[in-house]
Amino acid sequence: MPSKRIRQRIAKDAARLLYEGQEQELAEARLRAMRDSGFPERVTRRNIPPAREILDCVDALTLEREGENRPANQRETHLSALKLLWQLAPFDPRLVSADAGAGSCGATILLDVACGDYAGVRRFLDALGVAYVTEDPPSNAEQGYRFQGRTARQSQLTVQLTVHVTPIAGAAPARTGATADEFEAFVRRAYPDADLEALRNGDETWADPYVVFALLLQRLEGVKQKPEHHPEGDALYHSLQAFDLAREQFPYDEEFLQAALLHDVGKGIDPARHVESAVEALRGLISPRTEFLIRHHAAARRLRDGSLSGRLRDELISSPWRADLMALLEIDDAARRPGVAAPSASEAIDYLRSLAAW
Q1: 177-186, 223-232, 240-249, 262-271: segment of lowest average pLDDT
Q2: Which of 116, 219, 241, 345 is most buried as measured by Cβ atoms within 10 A of its Cβ?
Q3: What is the pLDDT of residues 144-173, one digit of tens each?
Q4: Range 209-356: architecture per CATH
Q5: Residue 48: which of 84, 90, 4 has the closest Cα?
Q6: For strand 94-99 and strand 145-150, is the pairing parallel, antiparallel, or unpaired?
Q7: Cβ(217)–Cβ(265) below 8 Å
């Protein structure tokens, strides 16, 4: 059987297992479908279906079997799942499944997140307004800690999260499921009329931004950087130095101070694409000016040395925030001194809160 047909068969079988409730988690359904395929020895990395393909098959199977009688809240469940993926961005979330249920059963969303601090997830869920109960910690930490409860905003929606506690950034056990980008692509195909910008930027305040900031900074502790570029130490120490230098120069500029403190938070999520990860994690929580400074702080160095070209160069040169961007670059360069005093993360957050309260 050709590799493509093997992948399609596994995807459809995994979708059926999820749809019929024989399996609750996408990873387990995929593994069982691979074992039951009749030719497990021919299953290779090339023909293992990704999460997004299995989710597409689940949706197609639901439509095929239920037609117009499919659960009316399937769309709302998918949109709620996408919103949660966005809001949980600091924890690199994966969507395992989003089932609208039937009748009065309600909807269930299964998510997998990674965090260096078990209690940090609880604080974040409190800020989101998710009521939850916790299970006893597992004997094997790689099994993950589980939360389950109902959101305050949709009483029929049950959210279950498996939390993998990762003491070292980037050391999470292998996890499966759809990323926010993958599930967003699925939602756009399934519901082309859905206003995702309104969903992302709606009036609801789902989280206290300073709770998110604190969690993102926490993930920077112990994140190593190249010593030839960062002799000062880990990414958290660098960020706190940058904040302190920015506060000396611009003590009342909340947006600039946020950019200085948070410009490298993406290194605690995905060091290979830390700028993009930071912008994604902070979306909806910071101003356009702060986002601009964080998004372009790496490009600013190429602008200064003359190696930047094209439309991005023109955009940065013509931006009203160009001077701010270059000021941030100077602070970024200066915040690399070993052994100097720097505020704690909580002190930096408290200072920003005091500015916001004015």
Answers
A1: 223-232
A2: 219
A3: 455 444 343 344 456 666 666 554 444 445
A4: Orthogonal Bundle (1.10)
A5: 4
A6: unpaired
A7: yes
Helix (H/G/I), strand (E/B), else coil: 337: coil
Q: Which long-range contacts (CB under 8 A, 24 or more apart) does 274-282 make?
A: 278/216, 280/89, 280/180, 281/89, 281/90, 281/212, 281/216, 282/212, 282/216
State what percent of residues in the chain have pLDDT above 90. 28
Kindly report the three-state secondary structure assignment for every residue of 233-278. Answer: CCHHHHHHHHHHHHHHHCCCCHHHHHHHHHCCHHHHCCHHHHHHHH
**Chain mean pLDDT for the chain:** 78
Alpha helices in the chain (DSSP H): 3-19, 26-35, 51-66, 74-87, 118-128, 180-190, 196-200, 209-218, 235-249, 254-262, 274-282, 288-305, 310-318, 322-334, 345-356
Q: Look at the block and give the residue holding tokens 């497990």.
A: 40
Model pTM?
0.59
Residue 42 has pLDDT above 80, yes or no: no
Alpha carbons 154 and 132: distance in angstroms, whole number? 13
Sorting pLDDT into bands at 50, 70 and 90, what band is 202? low
What is the reported pLDDT for 349?
A: 95
The arithmetic mean of pLDDT across residues 27-32, rounded, is 84
- Cα gap 180→158, rounded to integer Å: 19
Token pair of 95 as six digits? 């969507």
161: its two tokens: 């999260």
Residue 54 CB contacts under 8 Å (≥ 6 apart), including other chains: 11, 14, 15, 18, 26, 29, 30
Write out the two tokens for 303: 């602008």
Domain range 71-202, CATH architecture: 2-Layer Sandwich (3.30)
Amino acid found at 3: S
Contact in structure between 291 and 282 (CB atoms under 8 Å):
yes
- Say if residues 81 and 109 touch (Cβ distance below 8 Å): yes
The contacts of residue 346 (CB under 8 Å, 6+ apart) are 214
Instruction: List CB contacts of 296: < 8 A, sequence separation 6 or more.
Output: 312, 316, 325
CB 178 within 8 A of CB 51: yes
